[in-house]
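Example (one chain per record):
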Amino acid sequence: MNNQTMFRGVGTAIVTPFINGELDYESYERIVRWQVENGVSAIIVAGTTGEGATLSVEEREELTRITKEICNGKAQVIVGTGTNDTRKTLELSLSAQNSGADAVLIVTPYYNKPTQEGLYAHYKYLSERLEIPIIIYNVPSRTGVNILPETVARLAADCKNIKAIKEANPDVAQSDEIYRLTKDFDFYIYSGNDDRAFHMICAGAKGVISVASNVVPAQMVELVNSIFSNDISHALEMHTRLIPIFKALFIETNPLPVKAALSIMGYTRNEFRLPLVPPKESTMERLRVVLRDLGVIQ
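Predicted structure:
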């Protein structure tokens, strides 16, 4: 992807199915194929939704290889490689690069609470040692740190392969400021929240890295493509229709509800690696209601 543009549209932050504690590659392949058939533009492997924190390097490499094979140029393959240790992040990023990833998604270092100067140094260090594009991932609710628009713009200006940000700060004004500061660069903004995708793409973002598209890929693609084709009224209609699933997928910690939803749909087991455990029965019932209302299940 060095000489290609970043993806535009829907990138699915894909779940990782397990069976008796091990990766369920058969279910994984089925889910990825379904995503590609429904027109998503990218698959994000081993992200938060994919329980990347509990995957071994070998598992990550195998998932990347399989995903690359299935996507076969129809969708880009992006691997989540961020940790709170810069050197460990580099190791995982080089592994992803060597496994054929088109880009890496690197979350701001969590727990350590680096300063803005520390965040700049972290990403610049990685940029200088990687050949493939880097997508910054800003999710303050999980990491305890917020990378500011000025820091993002500085990195976009100084690092040739820092090409995008997944912005999951609920404050849309921050995304607007990133757009203002980077609009003259070859730099992409992606919404990191499904419920903000409509608003952010209308305001200059190039797409969404989506949890909901695991469950409703065709509908998310339709929503985003409607904005790109200037059919804003239809996009708003789709956004409004999908609000219940956007909400339901976050009534417990992601990825508990989304994997549970896929288990209800018959795509995977409702199984997680500790410290994650299956969601409550009340969550399961809420998901069944929402999925029925959307016509996803009978």
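Caption: The beta strands are 9-13, 18-19, 22-23, 42-45, 76-80, 103-107, 134-138, 162-167, 188-191, 207-210.
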